[in-house]
Automatic annotation (TrEMBL):
<feature type="compositionally biased region" description="Low complexity">
    <location>
        <begin position="348"/>
        <end position="358"/>
    </location>
</feature>
<dbReference type="GO" id="GO:0005615">
    <property type="term" value="C:extracellular space"/>
</dbReference>
<dbReference type="InterPro" id="IPR001156">
    <property type="entry name" value="Transferrin-like_dom"/>
</dbReference>
<keyword id="KW-0732">Signal</keyword>
<feature type="compositionally biased region" description="Polar residues">
    <location>
        <begin position="409"/>
        <end position="424"/>
    </location>
</feature>
<keyword id="KW-1133">Transmembrane helix</keyword>
<keyword id="KW-0964">Secreted</keyword>
<protein>
    <submittedName>
        <fullName>Melanotransferrin</fullName>
    </submittedName>
</protein>
<dbReference type="Pfam" id="PF00405">
    <property type="entry name" value="Transferrin"/>
</dbReference>
<feature type="region of interest" description="Disordered">
    <location>
        <begin position="326"/>
        <end position="427"/>
    </location>
</feature>
<dbReference type="InterPro" id="IPR018195">
    <property type="entry name" value="Transferrin_Fe_BS"/>
</dbReference>
<keyword id="KW-0677">Repeat</keyword>
<keyword id="KW-0472">Membrane</keyword>
<dbReference type="GO" id="GO:0006826">
    <property type="term" value="P:iron ion transport"/>
</dbReference>
<feature type="signal peptide">
    <location>
        <begin position="1"/>
        <end position="20"/>
    </location>
</feature>
<feature type="domain" description="Transferrin-like">
    <location>
        <begin position="33"/>
        <end position="391"/>
    </location>
</feature>
<dbReference type="GO" id="GO:0005886">
    <property type="term" value="C:plasma membrane"/>
</dbReference>
Length: 866
């Protein structure tokens, strides 16, 4: 190999590309089954299978399929390939059946039946004999070095983590990333794939669960290529470095039965750690295990028709008939009850069929978990009629369909073995065409890996009935453990919204979060106003709401609510500029003389639409003021307005003035409502009021014009709006382009924030769970490009805008503990502004006059700084 000239290598490489291209087309053809493999050893065995199937195609009669072999990087890759129909089948363990079903629409079609007839094995915890003497309870495993088969595997991850959470004191660290709970509990360990996206969505996992792994960087460490990957790898990890390994009950016997893995390592060197903290011999797994696990399954995509799945099943059953003849003294240790036929009868305490299942300590026995889901118990099994292989020419079947022409040899089997790479393969000899193929034998024939394509200790594949071809039926009660490791101390989070369009978005959001299994579960409730939502949150009927800065103030003062997450727009900080917008064609409107003008406001008592502009106008004496009664001030000074909420006693505690809603656009009950049902509510609504409602000035945030104009929105009122049609009114009397908001604004307001219960009701556990949920929600749904089929947090279905979250939001910002208070969050300037416009705002011993001076200085300072 090494002596090959460079250009020949180059040719081989190009050939590889060419064959992988033709391969892609090939898979689409009928009568081909593509097996996804995850190692070069498995690929070799698959290629051997492909060759013998091709050679013996007559024996398959109508069930013939050509075998293609597709090597992927790991099982996760395989699942993606299956999902994309670039490969057809692969073998997965029970935990992976869940992952495949939940995230990749894969369905199990065949289940392994192990030697002895049972369709399950036990998860066990193995330690070196005489070690870990300080561990007499599983909670003492804290800080130890653990060897897991890989994140997501049932026996090698889910059951240990579940049991440690239930009985070993492992705390839930992150409701949406159970890997972190394990990281927090154990010391340096090895659990391959603990850093892949699926198990590390935010990307903030520490490498604690990779520290013990031994693969080479890059690519080989903590991945399926790591020598410590899988059950064999976890055992290797235990022998060489770890304190404890989570294995199948067969792994130790398997790995110590031959000498090519380890010489001098014997089964007796190890013992089981039971869930009650005691030790037993390796063979006592029936009384000392961490739970039963369904045997592995072959999965395909649910996109395959029932007929195609049946084709696969029939083919695989033929493969077992032809190449799966069990030799009872075969490669397995006769001491192992699983491979010793003498023990088969006594092995009838199948936990999935039998109530007598007994464990030492730990969870109560599973009540007859699998019987309804599966085939009849072993014993009643009706063996299929074998096919005589010798009869191939005389016994030629009447073919119902044409056996397809065979493809070029090298696409299905390459005797040059292009995966030959490392020195450990020196022993590998590609099989000859006549060579027998043993389906249930792997090492050392194809390299040093066992359990290739199928597990070596299997005697048959059972076709799953169509109605059981889904992960729920296959897993049955085992789902409890799989979902159990994803538990969260907080069950639900109720989001309070204020309008039907927001409710619709909330329900979509809930569905989207559920699709990613995000916790806590979100629930939506509709309050009749923001104030109502605040009340519901204080009363515990709702948990969170997204509020305008001024509502954060109201919620804090009157309802003890605290902000804990804020939005960030394009300034990098959770704040925005409040701007006054006029039409470019209307030069008569100026900030200093708005008497009789028509004004558009985002809402009564909102930061940008009310508090900041009114405080500004009042404190500078540019509007005739009635003390802190800003409602009267506005009503008597402006001509007409749209101030959504101005007629509601919840927001306007003074006298309602009709002209404050005159410009509003909502029909009947939504007229002048302070929610998305009023067309002129909110930032976009206020600008729309300026464009089509007759307004002279609109008070909005600095992003609003850009969000609406220059073709950003399709609604007819916005379709022809250009940003050049608008101008900002500056405090110094000048006008500026909308882009110049930094030099022409009324001050900054804090961004909208998510609030929850504070004061007596403050619960840190709940707040961290809510924060966690929003952070993961943002990770999965924070992208801004969206279409009608995908959900995006920061997008609102037209004609609406700013539903729940502002559409201008670029990210969510978590407020630390010190900032979780309305006054800390809003800052002194806003508090002063609010007191200027609101006679009921907080207790104040200062006179309004004194305030006016303070605020005008402050705002002047603010402006000169910005
Ligand atoms: C089983 O295999 C062994 C060696 O692998 C062989 O000697 C024996 O004859 C085989 N038994 C049967 C029944 O095929
Ligand atoms: C389970 O084990 C306990 C003690 O190990 C024993 O007393 C009990 O009878 C067993 N139960 C069953 C159903 O086998
Ligand atoms: C905080 O909330 C959690 C989950 O809702 C609850 O179990 C816990 O008792 C609460 N803590 C306090 C101090 O109320
Ligand atoms: C909280 O955040 C503020 C603003 O970012 C920062 O000044 C303060 O130091 C932080 N406090 C803590 C305890 O992290």
């Amino acid at each position: 190999m090494t002596s090959l000239p460079r250009n020949l290598l180059c040719l081989i490489f190009l050939g590889g590309i060419a064959s992988s291209i033709s391969f892609t087309n090939y898979v689409e053809r009928e009568n081909v089954i593509s097996w996804c493999t995850t190692s070069k050893e498995e690929q070799r065995k698959c290629q051997h299978l492909s060759m013998v199937v091709e050679r013996d195609y007559r024996d398959f009669r109508d069930d013939f399929l050509q075998v293609q072999c597709k090597q992927a990087f790991n099982k996760d890759d395989c699942m993606t390939l299956l999902d994309e129909e670039k490969a057809h089948i692969t073998l997965v363990d029970a935990g992976e059946v869940f992952v495949g079903g939940r995230y990749h629409s894969l369905v199990p079609i065949m289940q392994e039946r192990l030697i002895g007839g049972q369709k399950f094995y036990y998860a066990v915890a193995v330690v070196k004999r005489g070690t870990l003497l300080d561990v007499s309870h599983i909670s003492h495993l804290r800080g130890k070095s653990a060897c897991f088969a890989g994140v997501g595997t049932q026996a090698g991850w889910v059951l240990p983590v579940y049991n440690m959470m239930q009985f070993g004191g492992m705390q839930v660290i992150d409701c949406n990333n159970h890997v972190k709970s394990t990281i927090n509990f154990f010391g340096p360990s090895c659990a391959v794939n603990s850093l892949i996206d699926k198990y590390n969505p935010i990307g903030d996992n520490s490498d604690r669960l990779c520290e013990l792994c031994t693969g080479k960087v890059p690519g080989g460490k903590c991945t399926n290529a790591d020598p410590y990957a899988g059950f064999e790898g976890a055992f290797r990890c235990l022998v060489e470095k770890g304190d404890i390994a989570f294995l199948k009950h067969t792994t130790v016997a398997e790995m110590t039965s031959t000498s090519f893995d380890f010489s001098g390592v014997k089964k007796d060197n190890f013992e089981l750690l039971c869930m009650d903290g005691t030790r037993r011999a390796i063979d006592d797994y029936r009384s000392c295990n961490w739970g039963p696990v369904q045997s592995h399954a072959i999965v395909t995509t649910s996109a395959k028709t029932v007929e195609t799945r049946r084709t696969y099943q029939n083919f695989l059953m033929r493969v077992v008939q032809l190449y799966g003849r069990r030799n009872s003294t075969g490669p397995f240790n006769p001491q192992d009850p699983f491979s010793n036929p003498a023990n088969r009868d006594q092995f009838n305490n199948d936990p999935f069929y039998n109530n007598n299942f007994n464990q030492s300590g730990g969870p109560p026995p599973l009540p007859d978990p699998y019987r309804p889901y599966n085939q009849p118990p072993p014993g009643n099994y009706d063996p299929r009629r074998p096919i005589k292989r010798q009869a191939r020419d005389t016994d030629k079947p009447k073919e119902k369909r044409q056996i397809p022409a065979l493809p070029p040899r090298q696409t299905s089997y390459d005797p040059q073995d292009q995966f030959y790479t490392g020195p450990s393969n020196d022993e590998y000899r590609p099989p000859a065409r006549h060579e027998e193929f043993d389906l249930f034998h792997s090492a050392p024939r194809y390299g040093l890996h066992r359990n290739l394509l199928l597990n070596d200790n299997v005697e048959d594949l059972i076709a799953l009935d169509e109605t059981f071809q889904n992960y729920e039926s296959y897993l049955g009660p085992a789902l409890k453990q799989i979902l159990g490791v994803r538990q969260c101390p907080v069950n639900r989070m109720t989001l309070c919204v204020t309008s039907k369009p927001e409710m619709d978005k909330c329900v979509k959001m809930r569905t989207a979060l559920k699709a990613q299994l995000l916790k806590p579960e979100m629930v939506c409730t509709k309050g009749h106003s923001h104030i109502d939502c605040m009340e519901q949150i204080r009363a515990g009927k709702a948990d969170v709401a997204v509020l305008d800065a001024s509502d954060v103030y109201t919620g804090g003062v009157r309802y003890d609510l605290v902000p804990f997450i804020s939005e960030v727009y394009n300034l990098g900080q959770p704040e925005y500029y409040v701007v006054a917008v006029a039409k470019e064609q209307d030069p008569t409107t100026e900030l200093t003389f708005l008497k009789g003008k028509y004004t558009c406001h985002t809402g009564m008592s909102t930061a940008a639409g009310w508090v900041i502009p009114m405080a500004y106008l009042m404190s500078n004496g540019w509007i005739r003021s009635y003390g802190c009664d800003s409602v009267r001030t506005a009503a008597e000074y402006f001509g007409k307005s749209c101030i959504p909420g101005a007629l509601s006693s919840e927001y306007n505690t003074g006298v309602p003035y009709d002209n404050m809603c005159d410009l509003c656009h909502g029909t009947s009950s939504s007229y002048c409502r302070r929610d998305a049902s009023e067309d002129f509510y909110g930032f976009t609504g206020a600008l729309r009021c300026l464009v089509e409602g007759g307004g002279d000035v609109a008070f909005v945030k600095h992003t609003t014009i850009a969000e609406v104009s220059d073709g950003k929105r399709d609604e007819w009122w916005a379709r022809n709006a250009l940003s050049g049609d608008f101008e900002l009114l500056c405090p110094d009397g000048r006008r500026m382009n909308p882009q110049d908001y930094k030099n022409c604004n009324l001050g900054k307001a804090k961004a909208n924030a998510i609030v929850t219960r504070g004061g007596e009701g403050y619960n840190e556990t709940e707040i961290s769970a809510y924060i966690n949920l929003f952070i993961y929600a943002q990770q999965f749904y924070g992208r801004r490009d969206t279409d009608e089929f995908s959900f995006s947090l920061f997008y609102s279905q037209p004609p609406y805008s700013d539903l729940i979250f502002q559409d201008a939001t670029q990210q969510l910002y978590v407020l630390n503990y010190t900032q979780q208070h309305y006054a800390k969050y809003l800052g002194k300037d806003f508090l002063r502004a609010r007191r200027i416009v609101d006679c009921h705002a907080g207790a104040s011993s200062l006179t309004t006059g004194a305030f006016a001076i303070v605020i005008s200085t402050t705002i002047a300072l603010l402006i000169s700084h910005s």
